[in-house]
Design a protein that fits this description.
Chain lengths: ~80, ~130
């Protein structure tokens, strides 16, 4: 038990290796999912599995699409300024 | 129906808010919203633990990263205990892991703040508009 506890504690005392590359942007997806779930948990008047999952999926998709559009606009602006 | 006094009503709202801060989702649990409470608890705890896993407990830095710490402490008073542990600089973390860890733990805290405010609002509504009236 003590070894397991030590192992669990040790997991949280040393940072993971995360590279700075385009793939690291994928770290935003779990965060967007968490935001969508917590927000919908507070906003829906009644929670049933089907409605909740649908609402969360719609919000998750909306946020991701908005982020992609923002990224494309910023990329186009950067391209126009630097060309 | 016996109406609660204004002082008792304020005390109840305070208890709901405080419980929601002590344990994410506990405010909703007190209001008998068990499914909502479980979803909130699981989401916020998982987000917070993911941040700690990626960046280590070093991302909780009450001295060097105070604005992040203000958001992180919204998770639970336990963050203050972790902040006390890391205040000496014994868990250094830099670069991308620090960035991701701080963002995850802070967003988890802000989400919990949203849930606390929501629970207090629902508690207020339940007291002034009891079901069936």
């Amino acid at each position: 038990m003590s070894i397991i506890a030590d192992f669990v504690i040790a997991t949280f005392t040393a940072p993971q290796h995360v590279q700075t590359n385009p793939q690291s942007m994928l770290w935003l997806l779990p965060l967007v999912a968490a935001i969508a779930v917590a927000y919908k948990a507070t906003k829906l008047p009644t929670i049933t599995a089907a409605i909740f999952l649908k609402e969360v999926a719609v919000l998750f998709g909306s946020i991701v699409i908005f982020i992609i559009i923002t990224a494309l606009v910023l990329y186009a602006l950067a391209w126009l300024i630097t060309v | 129906m016996v109406r609660l006094s204004k002082e008792n009503h304020v005390l109840f709202l305070l208890i709901v808010g405080l419980l929601g801060w002590l344990v994410p989702g506990a405010g909703h649990f007190l209001l008998k919203e068990k499914i909502r409470a479980i979803i909130i608890f699981a989401t916020i705890t998982l987000t917070f633990c993911t941040g700690l896993y990626v960046g280590s407990i070093g991302v909780i830095d009450p001295i060097g990263a105070k604005p992040w710490y203000v958001a992180q402490i919204m998770n639970s008073p336990m963050v203050a205990v972790l902040g006390h542990l890391t205040a000496g600089g014994g868990f250094p973390v830099y670069g991308k892991p620090n960035e991701i860890g701080q963002i995850y733990t802070s967003v988890a805290g802000l989400l919990n703040l949203l849930c606390i405010v929501n629970a207090v609002y629902w508690a207020h509504l339940q007291r002034i508009e009891p079901a069936g009236e």
